[in-house]
Structures
1.
Amino acid sequence: MNRTRPAGRHDARRPETVPSQRLRTPRRVRPHQWFAERLLAVLSGQRPVHWMLGHTIGEAYDQLAELAPATPLRSRGARPVIRMCRGAQPAPGVVEACASIAAGEQVRAMAFRLEQGPDLRWRCAAVELGSAPARHP
C-alpha cells in the first residue's frame, strides 16, 4: 500500500505544482479597457465626473459633463458591467475603442477615442453612447 496517494487512487502520479503568484506574469490591462471601466463608473453615477479631469483632453470632458448628470448607464437592478471591450489603433498614439455595457437584460454601446500625449499618458478625447434602449410597454 502506497501512503502518498489519496485513498481510492490507483496510480502513483502526483498532482502538478502550480506556479506561485510571483512567478506568474501579470496580465497588463490595455488602455482602452482601463478607460472603459472609468467611463462606466462616471456614466453610471458610481463616480463624479471630475474624477476624469486629468484623463481627458479637448471636448471629452465637456461631453462627459453633459452626459453624466443623466447617469445614462445606471440601472435599477443589477450593477452595470462591461461585457466586451475592443480597441483598434488607426494611427500611432491613437486608440478607437468600443464597449458593450450590460445591466440585467439591457445592453448599451459606448465608443471612445484615446490619444497618447507627449508624456506617453493616454487621455480620452471623445465619448459617444449608443441610443437609449427601447422601452417595452
Note: Strands lie at 81-91, 94-103, 106-116, 122-129.
2.
Amino acid sequence: MNIVAMISFGSFALAAVAQIAFRAMVKTLLKAVVKKQVKKKRAKKRKKKKRTECDCDKKKKKTRKGKTGKDECEPELKLVSVEFLDDLDIYKDQIGKAPKITWAQWQDTKEPYGEPEIHDRIGYISGDTLQIKAKFAIEDKPEDLKTGSIQGKGTTPEGKTFFFQDKKVKLSGDSVTTEEMSANGPLATKRTQFINPLIIEWSLQYQKEGSPKTKELGTSKHQVYVTLAKPINNIDKFLYLTLLDWATSVPGANTKPRAVKNTWSHFANPTGVDDLKTWDNRQLLYYGDGMSKCVDYESKADFFKVLELPTDRIASCEIFANLFISSLWVNGLTAECVQVYPSKILGYDDGEPIREIMLVNNWEETQTSFPERKGHRWAFQLNEETGSMMPPFPDNAPFTYGDLKSVDGIPGQNVKKPVEKAFTRHFIVKANGRYYDPSYGVIHESPEDFEKNVLFGYIMPDPYGVENDFLARKHKHAGEVIFDETNHSIFCGF
C-alpha cells in the first residue's frame, strides 16, 4: 500500500470515528433535554394538584421546612366574611333604591381575593360594645387539629384597640364560623366617631405537640360610624346612610351644640360648586335649572326618597331643611321647622292673608318702568308656563324678568345662581336657639339679619296687569320679615 493510500484510509477512519462520537453526543443531549422537560411537567402537575391533607400527615406527622422556611403542617384558613351585630339599622341610599344593610357587612368570596365584593358601613351608638362574627374557609389542616382559638385585634387610626376572641372553635368540615364575639371594652361614651378604617387583624391560636402556635389569617377593614346618642326615630326607616354620614363623619362632638355644629359643616357656606353631597357623592341642587327636574313627594315617609335620586335633581328649601333636621335626629337631637314670610299683608282670600313675595339677592336693573314711584318702581314678570321664575325645562332660563335681571348673589347648595329666587315663604331650622338656613348654608341671628343678608326686596301682583305680572321694590331694612315658630313643627311642609 503506498503512502497516499495509507493517508486516505486513515482520514476515512478518523472521519468515521468522529461521526460516531458526534451521534453519541447528540443522543446524550437529547436524552437530557427530554428528561428535564418531563421533570418540569411532573413538577407542574404536582403544583396544580390540590392538597387533601397536610404534608406532615403524609410523612407520618414529621415536621419539615420548605425552601421558604414555611411550616407545611400549618392550618390554612381564609377569611370569608365579617358580620357586625346589634348595630344600627341603616338604609343604603342609592339611585332608585335604599336597601337595608343586613348580614355580613364584609365579604370576600370571589377572585381576586383581597378585594371584598361586599364592604358596607356600620353604625353604633356611643358607649355600645362592638360585636362581631367571622367566617373562615378551611383550606388545609393537620388531621389531629380539632379545635383552636380565633382572635381579632381591631385598631383605629388613633391607636385605640379592640380585642375579639372565640376561645374554642371546632375546626372541621369546609368552614368555621365563630360565635358572637364582644369587644373587650365599649366605644367611648358621649362622643361621635367615624372610625375609618377599623383594621382587624385575624389569627388562629392552637396547640401543636404541646406547644402553642399562632397562624395569621389576614385582615379586614371597616368603616364605623358612632352617634352621640340613640337616634330619634320620628319616621320609620329614616336612618339613611347619607344622614348617618352627615351626622358623624366630622367626629369628636361630645355635646349637643358641637354635634349640631359638626353636622352643619356639611351644609355651611356653599360656593355653588361641589357642596352638599350624599355618602356616595351625589348632589342635590337648590333650584338648579328646569321645573321638570324638581323633586316631589307627598308624605313624610315618602320624603326620604329624595336621597335615592340622581345627582342632578332639584330640591326646594323645605327639602334641605328637612334633610338637616333628620340628620340631627341621628345624634338624638331635636330641632324645629321655622317658616319665613313677609309681614306685609295685601289682602285676604277665604280668610287667608295674601302677602308680598320675597325676592332673594341679587338683581340688576335693566330699566325702570315706573320711575315716579317711591316704592314699586320696577315691572316684574314670572314665567307664563310655570307661574314662577323656574322655566319648564333646563337650559331655557332667560334670567330677565321684566325690568330686573337675575345675577349672581347668594349661592345655593351646588348652584352658583339658583334659578328660583321669588318665594311666598321660606323654610329654615331652629336648633340650640339659632336659625339655620340649609338651602343657602348660612345662619341667621334674627329676621332683620335674614332680610339684610338674603333679600333684595319684594314683589306684589300688578293690579292693572295680567296674570304673572308683578311690581317690584327694594326692602327697607325695617323688620318686614317674620320668623313664624308658632307651629313647633318637627318637619317642614306638612
Note: The longest helix spans residues 3-48.
